[in-house]
Amino acid sequence: MKAVCLISGGMDSYVAAAIAREEGYLLYGLTFNYGQKNRRELTSARKVAASLKMKKHWIVPVCLPVTGSSLTDPRRAVPRKRTASVPTTYVPARNTIFISHGLAYAEVIGAEAVFVGVNAIDYSGYPDCRPEYLRQFQRLIDLALKKTVKGDRLFLKAPLLFLSKAEIVKKGLALGLDFSLTWSCYLSGRLPCGSCPSCRLRARAFQQAGVRDPSGRGK
Hints:
This protein is α/β, with parallel strands linked by helices. The protein has a single domain, classed as 3-Layer(aba) Sandwich (Rossmann fold). The chain contains seven helices and five strands; from the N terminus they run βαβαβαβααβαα. The protein has helices at residues 11-22, 40-51, 94-109, 131-144, 146-149, 165-174, 197-209, and strands at 2-6, 26-33, 56-61, 113-115, 155-157. Strands 3-2-1-4-5 form a five-stranded parallel sheet, with helices on both faces. The termini are far apart. The model has no long low-confidence stretch (mean pLDDT 90).
């Protein structure tokens, strides 16, 4: 069996890909260079792919609107606090574009699944991380591909969807993963900033899991 794994360099997609490996899939990784300010995550994605012994790993350039998000627009600051509304770090249609690339690659290589590290419990409030989004995307897959209209199945799998961040940490450790390879901070640097929403989520996850974060900043 083959699976396309969308990996960002963060811990969620790392654990999701490791679950795919545990389920017996041969892994093919895709990481997207979409003009994000944080270049460090691309380096981490390479390390994650190597640690999982992926059959192939591609870093794919994708052109997204630079003004749509504080993660891509150099004129907009990355927020330091979580908000009740959709945050400025939301990148318009990002998951839709990334998953679509994953589906195209999956059909070309004859894969049976696309794995994503989407989480709907401890997450940043993005609309494309909700269970209903994934359900509707699976309906699209069932209608839109040569593979599926011929009667074969291609599954969009999000094994972390209903896990807390602490549970994700524990699952990764149970799978023997090295979280020092990952990068969750919205910014680049020698150490994570420790104060952005992603850093705060990660810090709380490791604290609740009762283990030390190896990132170097307790993040």
